[in-house]
Design goal:
It is a single chain. By secondary structure, the chain is of the alpha+beta class. The protein contains 7 helices and 7 strands. It folds into 2 domains: 257 residues, CorA soluble domain-like (Beta Polymerase, domain 2, 2-Layer Sandwich); 63 residues, Up-down Bundle (Methane Monooxygenase Hydroxylase, Chain G, domain 1), CATH 1.20.58. A 7-stranded mixed beta sheet has the order 2-1-3-7-6-5-4. A hairpin with a 2-residue loop joins β1 and β2. α4 runs antiparallel to α5.
Length: 325
């Protein structure tokens, strides 16, 4: 899919392009390629003289290939953007999607494999807010600004999710089934928190590269610094959430251990209580003529009563000590 965005009265105007003829008269500030076909990339080459790299969104790029400038003035940036499918057992796990940006002739070209929440957010804002964007570099900065805001919203969602888990784990009796569900929820939030941390780290690197390249105006440079300050605050929040996740994980595992210890305690008490009747049965099971009770008519019921008493006595003692609670 090929979408071009032109500035009309200070707002972004979006057009979906179906052929080269529709693209030829346009002077866009932003060209967005979502899962581009070979035909669409050829239109970009013919209209703007730009060759889209075949490995633009590959995940196995070397670190040195993520930020660089070509001799003809092309500025290449590879950034990861977050997609969080939301809550629920059927929701897909969060993931990071690679996006390739190319700044060329004061136009921004973006190439990615699927639609992204950050891109939808920018398109919505640019249509509603006049004079939000003035050039291609503004588009890129606003994308990174929206990315930081989206990450902050996801962090708030993580905190809310952990609060729900905390209410279940710390204020209720937790059985093994509830503990297993809590561990699953905690693991999901931990994965999302880690992806957000990776995402904002990647955004910080991209902004630092833009600031070092001296491509930004004074106002854009200050805006980039403000985004970096926002990212710094997100870093401290992700660290706090990691600590909370570790605490809840340890607490949940502790409840599982407590439940297992209760079961083991029952078996231990039962085995200790059954030792005396086993000893009595072993003594009276001996086949020696010298056993006094061997010929006694009440010997059998006496042995049974003795075994019952030897079982009851430990249980009464353990209950008074509180070991059976």
């Amino acid at each position: 899919m090929l979408n071009v965005f032109t500035l009309v009265n200070g707002r972004l105007f979006q057009q979906e392009i179906d052929d080269l003829a529709a693209l030829a008269p346009l002077d866009p500030v932003w060209v967005d390629l979502e899962r581009p076909t070979a035909e669409e990339t050829s239109w970009i080459q013919q209209r703007f003289g730009l060759n889209i790299p075949s490995d633009a969104v590959d995940d196995d790029l070397e670190e040195s290939a993520r930020f660089y400038e070509e001799d003809n003035g092309e500025l290449h940036i590879r950034s990861d953007f977050l997609i969080d499918a939301g809550d629920g057992p059927d929701a897909e796990p969060a993931r990071n999607v690679r996006v390739a940006f190319i700044l060329f002739q004061n136009r921004l070209f973006s190439i990615h494999g699927e639609d992204l929440p950050v891109f939808r957010l920018l398109r919505l804002r640019a249509r509603r807010i006049p004079a939000l964007i003035e050039d291609a570099k503004d588009v890129l900065l606003k994308l990174y600004d929206a990315d930081a805001e989206y990450s902050a919203d996801r962090l708030e969602g993580i905190y809310d999710g952990l609060e729900k888990v905390s209410a279940r784990v710390l204020t209720q009796d937790v059985n093994d089934q509830a503990a297993g569900a809590a561990l699953t929820a905690i693991a999901r939030e931990e994965d999302l928190n880690g992806r957000i941390r990776r995402n904002v780290m990647d955004t910080r690197r991209a902004l630092s590269f833009m600031m070092r390249s001296r491509m930004l105006t004074g106002d854009q440079f200050e805006e980039a610094r403000q985004i970096l300050r926002d990212i710094d605050s997100l870093d401290s929040h992700t660290a706090f959430l990691f600590d909370k996740i570790n605490f809840l994980m340890d607490a949940t595992v502790g409840f599982i251990n407590i439940n297992q210890n209760k079961i083991i305690k029952i078996f231990s008490v039962a085995s200790v209580a059954l030792l005396p009747p086993t000893l009595i049965a072993s003594i009276y099971g001996m086949n020696f003529k010298g056993i006094p009770e061997l010929e006694w008519g009440y010997g059998y019921p006496f042995a049974l009563c003795l075994m019952v008493a030897s079982v009851a006595a430990p249980f009464i003692y353990f209950r008074r000590k509180g070991w059976l609670r």
